[in-house]
């Protein structure tokens, strides 16, 4: 397990506390629509942190060519129809470039600054000329509006139970997923980033915001900054 990350519940738990069985049950949300609207049709996509392929499969259905990356082999076993690569995102070097690099699931909020830097460097390293990076940020009140819960139409409840400071601007966040037949928890480290801090982190990696794709500012299209 990565330090500060843990998970409980049935089945395999990945190094960052995610339960494979849980993620296999979660429905895909608006992500594929947001992504498809922001990139060229049929683009080659490098999806960093694909998990079981919820978004991967939706993008394949829309005609994209997807390479799915995750550090959990058990997650990648559930991905079908895409090339898969197993390993930590921050160390990845596939040796080729892509039209679109996708960094979703709030991965940019990694508690460890060096991990975040490595992930953003991976994004830049794999970007084809004229390509873009799509990043999913946390909502503005992700760490402050706790506890909170959402009942999903699919019949389960998601709770963000707590977000407790552990030092150096990092919070330990605890989430619960309650299904009629099972409960999973995930505890993970996350670093809140204001819009300014987020844009500074991109700038450090040689990226700049092209535009915010959603009204809540959670989805962002980034491109290489001038001179990079």
Put the structure in a nutshell.
The chain has 6 helices and 12 strands. By secondary structure, it is α/β, with parallel strands linked by helices. The longest helix has 13 residues.
End-to-end span in angstroms? 35 Å
Provide the succession of SSEs. EHHEHEHEEHEEEEEHEE
What general outline do the C-alpha atoms trace? globular
Structural class: alpha/beta
Biggest β-sheet: strands ordered side by side in the sheet: 4-3-2-5-6-12-11
Average pLDDT: 97
**Which consecutive residue ranges, at least 5 long each, have pLDDT under 50?**
none
- The amount of beta strand, in percent, is 35-45%
Residue share in helices? 10-25%
How many beta-strand elements? 12
Number of helices: 6
Radius of gyration: 17 Å
Keywords for this entry:
single chain, 228 residues, alpha/beta, 7-stranded mixed sheet, 5-stranded antiparallel sheet, 6 helices, globular
Overall description:
There is one protein chain. The protein has 228 residues and is of the alpha/beta class. The protein contains six helices and twelve strands. The strands form two sheets. The chain has a seven-stranded mixed β-sheet, sandwiched between helices. A five-stranded antiparallel β-sheet has the order 1-10-9-8-7, with no helix packed on it. Strand 5 (98-103), helix 5 and strand 6 form a beta-alpha-beta unit. The mean pLDDT is 97.
């Amino acid at each position: 397990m990565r330090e500060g990350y843990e998970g409980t519940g049935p089945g395999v738990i990945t190094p960052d506390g995610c339960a494979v069985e849980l993620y296999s049950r979660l429905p895909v949300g608006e992500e594929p629509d947001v992504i498809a609207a922001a990139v060229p049709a049929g683009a080659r996509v490098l999806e960093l942190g694909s998990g079981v392929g919820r978004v991967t499969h939706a993008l394949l259905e829309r005609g994209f060519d997807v390479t799915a990356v995750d550090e959990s082999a058990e997650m990648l076993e559930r991905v079908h129809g895409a090339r898969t690569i197993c390993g930590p995102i921050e160390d990845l070097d596939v040796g080729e470039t892509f039209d679109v690099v996708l960094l979703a699931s709030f991965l940019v909020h990694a508690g460890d600054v060096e991990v975040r830097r490595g992930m953003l460097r991976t994004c830049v390293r794999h970007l084809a000329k004229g390509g873009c990076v799509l990043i999913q940020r946390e909502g503005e009140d992700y760490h402050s509006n706790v506890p909170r819960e959402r009942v999903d139409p699919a019949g389960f409840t998601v709770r963000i139970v707590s977000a407790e400071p552990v030092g150096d601007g990092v919070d330990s966040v605890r989430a619960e997923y309650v299904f009629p037949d099972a409960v999973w928890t995930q505890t993970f480290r996350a670093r809140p980033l204001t819009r300014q801090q987020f844009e500074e982190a991109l700038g450090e990696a040689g990226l700049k915001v092209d535009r915010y794709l959603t009204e809540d500012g959670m989805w962002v299209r980034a491109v290489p900054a001038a001179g990079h």
